[in-house]
Amino acid sequence: MAGIAKKQNTAFSDENLSGRTQQLYFNPTEEENYTYYGNVEVDFNKRTSIDCTDLEARTLNQKIRDVMKKGYGTVVIKNPGAKHSLGVGILNKLNVIFEGSLGYFGVGCIDGPTVRIKGRVGWSCAENMMAGKVLVENNAGSCFGAALRGGDLIVKGNAGARTGIDMKGGTILIGGNAGAFTGFMMQRGRIIVCGDVSANMGDSMYDGMIFVGGEVKSLGSDCVEGEMNEYEIRWLEQKLNNAEINSKTPVSKFKKYVSGKKLWNYDNLEPSERKGILG
Amino acid sequence: MAKAKKTTKTKKATKTKKVSKSFSLGVKGGGYKTVGGAKLKDKDIKSEREKSIGQHIGYRYDVNLIPDYKKLTPFLKTYIETMGWDDLNWLEDVHMGYEGDKPAVFDRNANGWITVPTKMKLPNGQQERDMLARELLIKFQMSSNHPLVALKKTYVKGDNFKLNE
Predict the structure, then answer these.
(1) Quick one: closest CA in A to B107, which residue?
(2) pTM metric for this prediction
């Protein structure tokens, strides 16, 4: 990348691309927008419904996009029938209501929508979610919120094993209990469990926080108990209220778990530093 | 104008060269000044392991810092209302960090640190800085000049993900 000058006009000031990264700078004159450039404008008050009975996942997902392009901001999906991969890849602000259960990989890879699922969900619900809010009114299967990047993922009931595996941001809220290996290899973000958590919670977690209202069967490797501060207590109360979850345990009694950081191993020098020495 | 720019670039290139020549892990002199292009201060490097490798381990700010909603700016309030959310949502994970020794925000869509202009005055508290970082990031991610827009225009496949222009 060294020595390559940026020629096109971007949101960042004109800089030479060299050194450790691209050296991007904020442009102070940039105009203010609230949605991604090129997204469609939708009105939350404009409502429509789609019956999923005879539709395949691909057809339903296309129909959601079609109504979104027409400006509908609220889409009700009737009879989802626990089909897999429903509502995936929505990169727009939108209000989606599923009147039933979803199968595997429901509402994955989304960036922005608010989703309410009036049923349960199968494996890997909202995997790789970037932003938005997903609320599941019943229980969730394994790998709930796998590789979550951002946004709020809520299940009012219980969640299965490996909840929040490899998550890199965002918040997972569980009204009931969580399965084994919850927060496995999590790198960032927050998990809140109002009930109990099964064995090996937070195993090999690099960073992030897990808040538990009930009992933890056992902690995984390098997961240790931490202390809560005032921001966190206030934030927990607010999050649980927003998620419509009434926790039996008062927020002040929740326990916080973090990474012990004993598994942090880094190579002595980055490639660029090695090059610096040799050069 | 073009001539002046050229001179600046040449000066910058010379500076970089100097940096790599004076590259030092700082073990003997205790300098820890320039490591891999990043200028670090002695006080920033704390643990024994960091001293031995002459660089920071992990983040240089608290990634787990929960936002203080009392410090929410009007711009961010409007953003939350526009999206139909109750709180900062994904922005809770955005913090003001550093690119080398300069304040910067990580843009996950551009996969890089975006440096804050040196002329911009930064507030003292980390909570206030985080709110500023969130505001800056929204303004630039939603811009028509964001690098992703150019990438989408060039490489996007299918009608579903084409830009609505």
Answers:
(1) A24
(2) 0.83
